[in-house]
Write a structure and sequence with these properties.
9 strands; single chain; Methyltransf_11; methyltransferase; 12 helices; disordered N terminus; alpha/beta; Malonyl-ACP_OMT; Rossmann fold
Amino acid sequence: MLLSINVVTRCTSIKQSYKVLCRCASTSKVNWQIRSDDGGSVHIFDRNTKSLQRERAAVAKDVNLYDYLKDEIGYRLADRVYDIKRKFKLAADIGCSRGYISKHISPDSIEELILCDTSQANLDSVIVADGVKIRKKVLDEENIEFEPNSLDLVISSLNLHWVNDLPKAFKKILEGLKQDGVFMASVFGGDTLYELRSSLQLAELERRGGISPHISPFTEVRDIGSLLTRAGFTMLTIDTDEVVVNYPTMFELMWDLKGMAESNAALNRSLHLHRDTQFAAAAIYQQLYGKYDQDTAENSVPATFQIINMLGWKPHPKQPKPIERGTGEVSLKDLYKLDEIIKEVKTTKNDGQKE
């Protein structure tokens, strides 16, 4: 049951207190790959499990009840496409699901859109705005294949955080883009569900004397920039949002995660969560993070979803480039008198024009 969605920028004392504990089980999957002994990528997620979760969610009768978060993020990503003042002839939506981006895309921005997803049921039910030409393609984001230099735009919303080999995925996307093509995506970040993670860890420490991973690892913000740069993208823009959703209890949150097909699919996940541990975690969750609404006399618990938004361009000779080091005319130590410097420059130019 969704009570409210609020975008917030906050850092509570509780979050700081348990940040170290949360990091114990939320180590970025990119770091796991870097530590691979043989130089190859480490398989963190069970792709077969994730495909089954998505297929099950796609055919559920109440699937519409769980679209609220992905609808919101898809709308925001579509809005970012409008910010680029050009019309893209051919674009691809990787992990389109039920059309969380495509339903908001205007034919004034994209002429033709390739909808890609692992689930045929999702492709059959996808929603697209009127006037946009579409093609549908069953594609696993672990093995992205497009014609080289064929796409003007690649978009993806809340999908790529389940990819085992992100460096490979980014390189394949870059290969498919034309010069000066754009890649835009949103993924869950490392602080996602930190309240649930810390509550489960504390409950298991109390009841079992140890910690088992129940929440999948998420990519960190610092890793996204370095991976995009290594793949070959330029003019990067990376920012984060926090979406906080309030639920009656922890159990409604876990049920909605299952309905969103965002259940844990890590290979080393603990498949069983004891009943007494669940109730202990719910009590800890309410105690540490719970809220009480005096107007309705109801309790609720917040769940934080950190969204990492990324944008990168495929290199092109005509793209703006940074000026060479040492060519600056104003020292950083003089920034406090920037207004005076600008006035002097304008005066000099005006005098030159009069002459």
